[in-house]
Design brief:
single chain; 418 residues; 4-stranded antiparallel sheet; 2 helices; WD40/YVTN_repeat-like_dom_sf; ABC transporter
Length: 418
């Protein structure tokens, strides 16, 4: 990322005006100012095929650093905006009022696209920033922000992608598989239904699909081809699968008795159970994993007053008592556990000692929908009541690095560019 501005508040941050954002949510049909408010980037001229450099992507600008953006949505009015953390500008995603549609009910991301769940459908928005990891080197890209269109109904529960496909799953058990290249081109292709997938997660991984809660007893993780054909059923069960995360070491699924790590080596898939090591009630299970992209350390609420930290590399769980918790996340790899409490304070904990090392008061009201997003050097907390987003330097005693007034209540937030 570019060096951060260390002032406590950036007063010249562009704010969405009421006329620009429009009130109400509905069919995404355009983007106001995406060409001029996206940091001044222009699609690169298409070189001749013989001169195309490694990593070239038509219509995108490659950068030497990660290009992070925050997609923000108002739960009531349906206002949607994209905050560019490099330029400090906000681009409003233009929506059209609909009698059937209220505000935004949920927001997810696969690292590039934001998926907004409303009362009538789930809509995809291309945030215009993403990362391509080749293992030994990484490419960072930025492009114009644009809405794409509806990819599912109002009951979408999970969205996962790889470079080729995007899997959109509903709470009813229906999963649609979309050609990701078409989404990247700005169109929604016809989805392909994945039969007999159950109500569990479907995660594209290693050129296959991992289907949780499949099989006769619905406690099996199946490996399928991208067209849905069965390939293998993993021997290690995962009862009552809830929650999943993709890491460098494989895909983690939350199970009743711990976690299941699914990995692949030369076309062979294997599963390893990581048990809690103690009796854990249903209300204390880890069911919503959060982590920094690329990290193998995951955080999840453990009931109402504690947080689980799962070290995928060491195959260990750590439970940290935090008091009433709203959201948690961690950068991993020696970084702190970051916990937002119901009192609106953000706290940092040393994972090894389980001791709190720093605390900062942030929110005064409306904490229920707040999240903590983490990248390689900063954390972000959305303040719906204050109509702001806070940038925190978690390596410097939770120092408040920047404050972004956004002009609406950002009840939902995801970070893209990862």
């Amino acid at each position: 990322m570019t060096p951060r501005n260390n002032t406590h508040q950036i007063r010249h941050t562009k704010v969405l005006s009421r006329a620009a954002v429009l009130v109400g949510a509905g069919l995404l049909v355009g983007l106001t100012g995406c060409q001029s408010d996206s940091g001044g980037q222009r699609p690169a001229a298409k070189p001749r095929p013989s001169s195309a450099p490694h990593g070239y992507v038509e219509g995108a600008e490659e950068s030497s650093e990660q290009q992070s953006r925050l997609v923000l949505a108002d739960a009531g009015a349906g206002t949607v905006g994209v905050l560019d953390l490099t330029t400090e500008e906000i681009s409003p995603v233009h929506v059209t009022p609909s009698k059937r549609t209220g505000g935004v009910r949920g927001l997810r991301t696969d690292g590039r696209f934001a998926f907004l769940r409303t009362d009538d459908a789930t809509y995809a928005v291309d945030s215009g920033t993403w990362t391509v990891d080749h293992g030994d080197h990484v490419h960072y890209y930025r492009a114009p922000i644009r809405p794409v269109g509806p990819v599912g109904g109002p009951d979408t529960a999970r969205v996962h992608s790889d470079p080729s496909v995007t899997a959109v799953s509903s709470v009813k058990g229906d999963t649609q598989i979309f050609d990701r290249k078409k989404l990247e081109e700005g169109t929604v292709p016809r989805g392909r239904s994945l039969s007999d997938a159950g109500a569990g997660a479907v995660v594209p991984y290693a050129e296959h699909l991992l289907v949780a809660s499949a099989g006769a007893g619905r406690d099996t993780v199946e490996v399928r081809s991208r067209d849905g054909a069965p390939v293998a059923a993993l021997d290690e069960p995962c009862a009552s699968a809830r929650g999943e995360a993709v890491t460098r070491r494989g895909v983690v699924f939350g199970c009743a008795d711990g976690a299941l790590l699914v990995s692949e080596d030369k076309g062979t898939f294997s599963a390893t159970k990581i048990p809690y090591g103690r009796a854990v009630g249903a209300g204390e299970r880890a069911v919503d994993f959060r982590h920094r992209a690329g990290s193998t350390t995951l955080a999840a609420k453990a009931g109402d007053d504690a947080v689980w930290v799962l070290d995928v590399t060491d195959r260990t769980w750590t439970r940290i008592g935090t008091g009433p918790v709203v959201a948690a996340n961690t950068p991993g790899e020696g970084g702190p556990l970051l916990v937002l409490g119901q009192d609106g304070a953000l706290s940092a904990y040393d994972i090894a000692t389980k001791k709190r090392t720093a605390r900062r008061d942030l929110l005064t009201k409306g904490t229920a929908s707040a999240v903590v997003e983490v990248d390689i050097s900063r954390a972000y907390v959305n303040d719906a009541g204050g109509r702001k987003v806070y940038e925190i330097d978690y390596n410097d005693g939770l120092r408040l690095a920047r404050t972004f007034p956004v002009g609406f209540a950002p009840a939902h937030m995801v970070e893209t560019g990862r």
